[in-house]
Specification:
alpha/beta; 5-stranded antiparallel sheet; 17 strands; 49% helix; 507 residues; 5-stranded parallel sheet
Length: 507
């Protein structure tokens, strides 16, 4: 419980004994003691002057004490104070005037009032001390200014002046337009700032201003409206942290990131070109496989026709049948040329196309190579799946499929199988379609499986592979189709799964 430290000035014994009962820590001073010095050097909560001092002299003493310790509680005991003396007591903020003879209930009541007043004063002193510490703490690390409701600056601290290179007298009375950055301060930001502040909300953002030296100053800024007792805006407090070095570093990093991104983009373009070049080489091998049989058949048809004409002649029907066979073979060659053209087309424009169509064209390209190596290729999707469309560059998806199918063929050959089987399956959900390619080549080694989509990783020799095929396949599926490609092992071989959004049309 808080104890009142009372200083008793006087020597009336009866008064002292009564007061001491309620103020056990009371200290006494006689008239001859230097009262002012005692008050200055001790922590008294209240001072009581009895009638040993004339009332006017007691008033003068209190007035001097109040100049040193304004919050000190003061009581004067008087015999017959005049109205003028009481008015003077009120003027100098004396807390109480007691008249003789003192009554016990008066002293008790006074002690209670002094207790609460003293406690309140102690709390106020403590709060003011903390507030001063808060202010000093903020002043030591923040750039602070205040403006009135008209936007005129009324206060700046030393840090604020130092940051912008002005003296306080050059800033006070001005508006913040003094620091306006004509090129980089967005008008929309200023409108948002004042709109929020005038609606009694705190605004927070990064501002760019000009210092007196014309240097750019970036600050992390809070604009805080200060309200009076009527919940009206009295003024605005502006607290800023200098982030110029951080912002400059950030902008440098952004430039470097942009340059690195452009470099990576160029590298990816180069990798795509390399991958396409390798795929074109694969395609030409497939052309040779695809065309060898129909060209041979056309040649045989022509030789047979010449032989028949030389020996016994040919009927009109036989000649027409020969032409029909040749036309069938040339139509097949023309169809494969279209498929090869679609594959090798460098146009990267995204279109909506049936996934089934893309798979069919890719199968036509590689069918000859599969037949030459005694590998069967199964693809029998449900009719409902044949019309599902996807969005992206069709030629690049053909490149991905051809790469996986070629790898399956190579794996079957390298593992010594006399024959092989590759199966393509389709399945769909409401918003995506999944394409899986499964082979029976024995699977991918578990130590290799996590790395197969890494750039330049290959299990083939340098002549056979560059290690960019599957890496670019992953890049194409993820970047150009917003899809996903995964690889895993099944019982007899590997399975590659590609999941694409259905008809993912974009403007």
């Amino acid at each position: 419980m808080h104890t009142i430290n009372l200083l008793y000035i006087g020597h009336r014994q009866s008064s002292m004994e009564m007061i001491h009962h309620y103020f056990p820590t009371m200290q006494q001073l006689t008239n001859g003691t230097d009262i002012l010095q005692e008050v200055i050097h001790n922590s008294f909560d209240a001072i009581l002057i009895d009638d040993s001092l004339p009332f006017s002299e007691a008033l003068n003493t209190v007035e001097k004490i109040k100049m040193v310790k304004k919050s000190l509680l003061t009581i004067i005991v008087a015999t017959h104070p005049t109205c003028e003396e009481l008015l003077q007591a009120v003027r100098i903020s004396i807390n109480a005037v007691l008249t003789l003879p003192l009554q016990t209930h008066e002293i008790e009541e006074m002690s209670k009032k002094l207790y609460f007043i003293s406690l309140s004063n102690q709390q106020t002193i403590k709060q003011n001390l903390l507030l001063n510490q808060y202010k000093n703490a903020l002043d030591s690390c923040l750039n602070i200014s205040k403006t009135n409701i008209n936007g005129v600056i009324t206060y700046v601290n030393e840090h604020f002046c130092y940051l912008y290179g002005y003296k306080a007298e050059e800033i006070i009375g001005q508006r913040h337009v003094l620091f306006h950055h004509p090129e980089n301060t967005a008008k929309e930001q200023m409108i948002d700032l004042w709109k929020k502040a005038q609606s009694k909300h705190v605004w927070h953002g990064t501002l760019i201003n000009k210092a007196k030296s014309e240097d750019d100053i970036y600050t992390d800024t809070y604009i805080i409206p200060l309200l009076n007792g009527k919940y009206e805006i009295e003024e605005y407090m502006d607290m800023r942290i200098d982030v110029t070095a951080l912002e400059t570093h950030l902008r440098t990093l952004q430039t470097k990131i942009y340059e690195a991104t452009q470099e990576i983009k160029g590298q990816q373009e180069s990798l795509i070109a390399q991958s396409r070049s390798a795929a074109l080489g694969e395609m030409f091998d497939n052309i040779a496989h695809q065309w060898r049989q129909p060209i041979g058949a056309i040649n045989n048809a022509i030789i047979n026709a010449e032989f028949a004409l030389e020996l016994a002649g040919m009927t009109t029907d036989e000649i027409l049948e020969t032409f029909k066979q040749i036309n069938t073979y040339t139509a097949f060659l023309s169809g494969t040329i279209d498929d090869f053209r679609n594959f090798s087309n460098p146009d990267k424009d995204k279109t909506i196309f049936p996934l089934h169509q893309c798979i069919g064209q890719t199968i036509n390209i590689i069918r000859g190579a599969y037949e030459m190596n005694n590998i069967s290729l199964e693809y029998t999707p449900d009719n409902a799946l044949r019309t599902i469309t996807v969005y992206g560059p069709q030629g690049e998806l053909s490149q991905v499929l051809l790469n996986i199918l070629s790898n399956a063929r190579d794996a079957i050959k390298e593992n010594g199988y006399d024959s092989g089987n590759v199966r393509i399956d389709l399945s769909a959900t409401d918003d995506s379609i999944t394409l899986s390619i499964t082979d029976n080549a024995g699977g991918i080694p578990e130590t290799v499986l996590p790395k197969i989509f890494d750039p330049y990783f290959t299990t083939k020799n340098k002549v056979q592979g560059s290690g960019i095929g599957l890496y670019m396949s992953k890049t194409i599926i993820e970047k150009h189709f917003e899809g996903k490609i995964e690889a895993a092992n099944e019982e007899k071989g590997a399975i590659f799964t590609i999941t694409l959004p259905i008809h993912n049309y974009k403007e």
